[in-house]
């Protein structure tokens, strides 16, 4: 199983980025998918999740981020708007099925002027 994130980078405050996470070696459509992030010196935290059954979503960053998935492309997305300096972190995607969890290697997002 492999999850590969992309789309991170340096962006100015107020800017936008779209992260992608493409899976291989797994039946992507049966996994609940999530984005997490970890800032320096802090614990990894959940950002958003999307169910495999009905596409329902949960957010801890509300109003600025949107999670979505394309099962045909085995890809998870995170659209991030109105970015703030406190959004700076390494962003990880996670695939979960019952007790199984798979993680990507992470992509760095830096919000700075």
Overall pLDDT confidence = 97
Number of helices: 0
The Cα radius of gyration reads 13 Å
As a percent range, the share of helical residues equals: under 10%
The percentage of residues in β strands lies in over 45%
Please state the overall shape, judged from the principal axes of the Cα atoms: globular
Low-confidence runs (pLDDT<50, min 5 residues)?
none
Give the class from helix and strand content and strand pairing. Answer: mainly beta
Main sheet record = 7 strands, mixed
User: What is the number of beta strands?
Assistant: 11
Order of helices and strands: EEEEEEEEEEE
Secondary structure elements and pairings:
Layout: E1 2-6, E2 9-11, E3 17-24, E4 32-38, E5 45-50, E6 57-59, E7 65-70, E8 75-80, E9 89-97, E10 100-103, E11 107-111
Parallel strand pairs: 2-11
Antiparallel strand pairs: 1-3, 3-8, 4-5, 4-9, 5-6, 7-8, 9-10, 9-11
């Amino acid at each position: 199983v492999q999850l590969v994130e992309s789309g991170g980078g340096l962006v100015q405050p107020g800017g936008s980025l779209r992260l992608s996470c493409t899976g291989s070696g797994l039946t992507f459509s049966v996994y609940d998918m999530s984005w997490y992030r970890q800032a320096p010196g802090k614990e990894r935290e959940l950002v958003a999740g999307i169910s495999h059954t009905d596409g329902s979503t949960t957010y801890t960053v509300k109003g600025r981020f949107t999670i979505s998935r394309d099962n045909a492309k085995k890809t998870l997305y995170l659209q991030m708007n109105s970015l703030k300096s406190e959004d700076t972190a390494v962003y990880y995607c996670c695939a979960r099925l019952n007790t199984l969890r798979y993680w990507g290697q992470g992509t760095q997002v830096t919000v700075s002027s």
